[in-house]
Amino acid sequence: MHRERIRHAGLLEKIVSAEEAASHIRNGMTVGMSGFTRAGEAKAVPLALAARARTEPLKITLITGASLGNDLDKQLAEAHVLSRRIPFQSDPALRKAINAGEVMFIDQHLSETVEQLRTRQIGPVDVAVIEAVAITEQGGIIPTTSVGNSASFAILAEKVIVEINTSQPLLLEGLHDIYIPTRRPVRHPIPIVAPENRVGLPFIPIDPAKIAAIVVTSKLDSSSTVLPPDEDTRAIAGHLTDLLRHEVKLGRLTTTLQPLQAGIGSIANAVMHGLIDSPFHNLTMYSEVLQDSTFDLFDAGKLDFASGSSITLSQAKYQAVLPDFARYKQRLVLRPQEISNHPEIIRRLGVIAVNTALEFDLYGNVNSTHVGGTHMMNGIGGSGDFARNAYLSVFVTKSIAKNGAISSVVPMVSHVDHTEHDVDILITEQGLADLRGLAPRERARLVIANCVHPLYRDALNDYYERALARAGHTPHLIEEALGWHAALRERGTMLPG
What we know:
Blueprint (H helix, E strand, L loop, with lengths): L17 H5 L7 E4 L11 H9 L6 E4 L8 H7 L3 E5 L5 H8 L4 E2 L7 H6 L8 E6 L1 E2 L5 E2 L7 H7 L2 E7 L45 E7 L13 H19 L10 E3 L3 H8 L9 E4 L2 E2 L1 H8 L3 E6 L1 E2 L3 H7 L10 E3 L2 H4 L2 H7 L2 E5 L2 E3 L4 E2 L2 E2 L3 E2 L6 H7 L2 E5 L3 E2 L4 E2 L1 E2 L14 E4 L2 E4 L5 H12 L2 H15 L14 H9 L6
Parallel strand pairs: 1-2, 1-5, 2-3, 3-4, 5-8, 8-9, 10-16, 11-13, 12-14, 13-15, 16-21, 17-24, 21-25
Antiparallel strand pairs: 6-7, 17-18, 19-20, 22-23, 25-26
Helix pairs in contact: 2-3, 3-4, 7-8, 8-9, 12-13, 14-15
Enzyme class: transferase
Keywords: Transferase
GO molecular function: acetate CoA-transferase activity; acetyl-CoA hydrolase activity
């Protein structure tokens, strides 16, 4: 029955229940699980761990690629399984436990986690739990809809548990390109010079003797919660298109642009979707998450090829894409996230990176992780990998939130994830600020004029003019710089009282 997917004959006897497989995971262990932005996560063993934790002491350090789907982070958090979580999450229940100090969350650039594991700066991984579409005759693991950190987890772990997901089509085989960087001090350049280059294997190569258990599942990935474009996100997309048109006019880009990257979420997805009605063509992507907009661009004849680490789609898009996957397969590749997010490749390809900010300030510093400077939202993800190394580093956000109670443009950000040195372009629905080649005082004028909502423009101008009286290269009123955040905490709004 399972020979089509478990092709190594000696591994058929390793098929067990999720509960028996989970027994290999003991209290205090470090566990590496597949999963990247709600795609390709192991689905049965985590639930068995959560159930077990309700009857016996069980705490683990959990390392993934990024966020897990199917409410797994929620169930693990509510069962108090997690003592430590790395490197990204997006679940409200887990977020609550992190902000309460129950779970120690290490927020990392997504390209760095397995580098630290490989060099024993963190870890080691005791058990890896990897979702697969199949296992090859030699014991190689063929991932499903994401690669993330799965390859290095499986290679570095003492034991590997494989979840064979029969709901994932065998057509996914051949989609993946598993390349592991060579060891220092003689590490070779990663030989990717175009998004379509394939430089590795279509499976994760491990010794099959390491596979301790196999669980057969049939649960689908969670669908994403991406919202369709609205008036504001269409305006943001229009500003970006205008910028790129201008770059072409100046001869700095051609109408095929350069490889595109977009962060996860409704705003970034909508901005990419906006390129459908642009003059650009024969586009490519070198990104992390391939969202609905990737396939919309394929269908519109705008996109030639997309490289990522996971495919995360809305329910409607899943239902359209998976049955017709053969039509897209030759134009797609999924890589380990340390390759999809690798600074060397991002810089070499000249990626145009579009990521989402929670807030940014007068001088171009961006906060993408912390609400009010203290409470973790999701994590930095891969935005820093791309922002520091992109040809164009673009951050987008709506200018206000909570019906105007919050301004996304503030005097000083309450937490810095991306310094002004890594940010080229800021865009809200109000307009665009091109910060390249500008000193701080010039940046501030442009940000206020072009990006701030009218509700807050006068207040921000007033702050800046008074700060100028104190002089300085980067004028600030230190005693007031976080005053807007304090007002939000005390009065529920940043609007002047």
